[in-house]
Structure formats: C-alpha cells, structure tokens
C-alpha cells in the first residue's frame, strides 16, 4: 500500500454523515477526501507504514479518520456541526494522528505496536560448545 489517495469514498462519506448530496456536491467532496488523507499519509510515513499490507481492521479505521479529518479541515456546507463539535472532532483526529505517528497504533498486518511487550535474552558463550551453537544460530538467522 502506497501513501497516496483517499481512504474513503463519497458513498462512505454520505453514509457516515447522513447527508444526501447532489451530484455536483459529490464531485467536490472526493478531492477534499484525497487532500485530507495527506495528513494521514504523513503520519503513516513517519513510522514506515506506507509500504505494508494493512491489518484487517485498518481500512475501516482509516476511512473513518479520513472522513472526520475532511470535515474538520474544510468547512463543508453539507455537514452541519457547531464550532464546539468541530473542535472535539479536531482534538480526536489530532490524537489519532499522533498515535499513528508515534507508532502506538500499528496499521500493518502482523505487526505489533510500540506498547507491545518484547523480550530477548543475550546468548552467552562460556564454553566452546556454546560458542559454536551461538555462531550456528547466527548463521541460521541470516537471510
């Protein structure tokens, strides 16, 4: 998956915000979704998540984030929210982008986020036999 394009479609936007648009309005919304996705791509690129297969839940998460970000960034007349609601959405989006940017949310399939515990033990070669085993293990791990 490359970091380009929108994560949401106009139909998804329509369903999420419960609004029925005219065709000319729909054609204006897709570029806004694409433009607002740029901030998500930047957050993903910060942790190297642009060139991976997304986890099964990630497309829905990114689609929702993309649609909310578009509403926050652009004053869309089709979505009527108050200034207070806009600020709440902006805070939520910024928090989610920060979690992606810092690696606390890992969008790639099979990966674990920063908060996932990791454990490793250094091998010690006290005897010649252990040193040989350590070297053999190191050679086995090489691609």
The SSE order reads HHHHH
Strand content: under 5%
The helix count comes to 5
Sheet with the most strands? none
Would you mind describing this structure in some detail?
The chain has 5 helices and no strands. With 143 residues, the protein is mainly α. The longest helix has 24 residues, at 23-46.
Q: In short, what is this structure?
A:
By secondary structure, the protein is mainly alpha-helical. 57% of the residues lie in helices and 0% in strands.
Sequence-ordered SSE layout with sheet pairings:
Layout: H1 10-17, H2 23-46, H3 58-73, H4 83-101, H5 128-141
Question: Which terms would index this structure?
Answer:
single chain, 143 residues, mainly alpha, 5 helices
């Amino acid at each position: 998956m490359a970091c380009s394009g929108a994560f949401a479609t106009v139909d998804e936007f329509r369903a999420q915000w419960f609004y029925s648009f005219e065709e000319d309005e729909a054609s204006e919304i897709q570029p806004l979704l694409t433009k607002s996705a740029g901030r998500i791509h930047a957050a993903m690129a910060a942790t190297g998540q642009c060139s991976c297969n997304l986890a099964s839940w990630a497309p829905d998460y990114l689609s929702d984030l993309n649609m909310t970000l578009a509403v926050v960034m652009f004053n869309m007349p089709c979505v009527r929210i108050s200034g207070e609601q806009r600020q709440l959405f902006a805070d939520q989006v910024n928090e989610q982008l920060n979690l992606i940017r810092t690696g606390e949310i890992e969008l790639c399939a099979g990966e674990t986020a920063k908060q996932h515990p990791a454990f490793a033990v250094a091998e010690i070669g006290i005897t010649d036999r252990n040193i040989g085993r350590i070297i053999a293990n190191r050679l086995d791990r090489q691609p």
